[in-house]
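Ticket reopened. Same input as before:
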Amino acid sequence: MTEVDNPGPLQIVYLVKKLSDMSYPQIGRTVIQKMTYLISREGLADYTFSLYHYGPYSGRASSDLDQISASGMVNVEWQGDKGYFISPEQKGIQAIEKLSPSERSEIDRVVERYHEFSAIKLSLIATALYVIDKNNVTDDEELIDVVTSLKPQYAGRVEQILREAEIIPLATVNI
Amino acid sequence: MVYPGATHTRFEHSLGVMHVASRMFDSIVSDEKNQKVLKDTYSLEGKGLETVRQTIRLAALLHDIGHGPFSHGGEDLFPVNPAGKNPGSGNRYKHEDYSVALIRGPLRKIIEGNQYNQSNLRITADDIADLIEGRPGGLEHIFFWRTLISSQLDADRADYLLRDSHHIGVKYGIFDLERLLGTMTLGEDPETKDIVIGIHEDGWHNAEALIIARYQFFSQVAYHHVRRAYDIMLKQALLTTVGEYPSPGSGDSLSDYVKLDDPRIWTRILDSEDPSCKALLERKHLKSVYQIEDMNRIPDCGEVDQTLQTLTGAGIQHYVDDRENEWYKFQGDVGMSDQIWIIANNKSAVPLSQYSKVIDSLKPSRQIRIYVDYHNEKRAKDLIGGSCP
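Engineering reply: fixed in the latest deploy. New output:
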């Protein structure tokens, strides 16, 4: 009935706070969408994602971000030709006290694994994981081809980034 | 009941979506700079573009074909999707699941057996379903066109806002479609460098009008308190006359679902002795006895929970209507404040809210209403008056 029923907004506030604590350079909407997808894969956030060329996307996660911005839990700003910059606000920092220790540690685990990747790389990583999840892809070349088709502007970099993220080789890595 | 002129059907809407999607595509592709981007980035030109155009047209035509009787009114009767992430939390099938099942199933022969398609385009049923669903299956290189099928700027809402306003007889939902089409173009998302479909900055006022039209239409028409009362009553009537819908999974189940059309269901409702059907037929609609606009203050006073407890304690049957849930039924997976990109001359994309102070000030709100049965209105209002300190 109330906000307690939907843990997504608080999980996103916590995500923003965690990324901010780790000095992530630009916490934009893309980063939040992709990190939320990665968290959602761990069974935490109850969002449904659909695949676009910019990667997995959830309208509800986007709305929840707007909700926490409107209620003063995070600050969302647009800067010139760089894009969005999102930062935690005091009200949000207080609100995330309601999250359980297990929720926090799951989010911590995901952020610690992926925080060194830029928005562009996260977009490629989340796309690859979505393709693996939905299409049961087991072949590295096939995965690289699908991701490259979606994001041809990164042709040539896809393989390297997926290796950096330890998504490939698929046969040996636990994703 | 509320809008007696609204007798139009989803069929003519689907034709409209196909038409608008075609025109959006043509407008973008007719620009030389866009042609260069499409060729350089996606190797799309000539015959390849024609195939993409027809695939988009078919996806637009068929995107809604999976709607059940009374469309959104019965979506809570979809069964839980066992492949959903959290089946226990009410992760039900959506009408899109039925659309793609119908396309991949009974419509496959028609699509793939079409002579012109066989000789020229070779579009498969899976191509169309994949584009609607966002499923990687070989057409990933045209996924950026999904913006025309499902986004803030898609052909679906461009058509239904104008079409519904016309038939309903309201002035909400109005915007300049011709100007919108004339200003659609390609740009680049500064965060990811992805190609995006947006509106040239010369047309940002019209993009603003589109968003305002959508908000007004949703709050004043789709979420009208009496219209929503009938949605809830229809759901009750469908539960008693149909029960949970068949799943989109396989042959027989899908055939059974297709048979659930409006005329057949009306007959069942007319023949039913159930009070929910009687109330619907006698137009004794549910009454809204409580509503709150701003969800942010709910946790402070527990007003909604207190009201529900009061009604439960008095033995009054009640129904909670959450505007946010309704939004996603109408809008698909498009966020309440998702932005339209405005494309500057240098092709850099900027969200509309950076141009428009009006859009920037639009905040998502979670309106909640509580309804009770027709005959309980006065008693409920007397009980819950001044329940919040």
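Chain B has 19 helices and seven strands. The longest strand of chain B covers residues 195-200. Please confirm and we'll close it.
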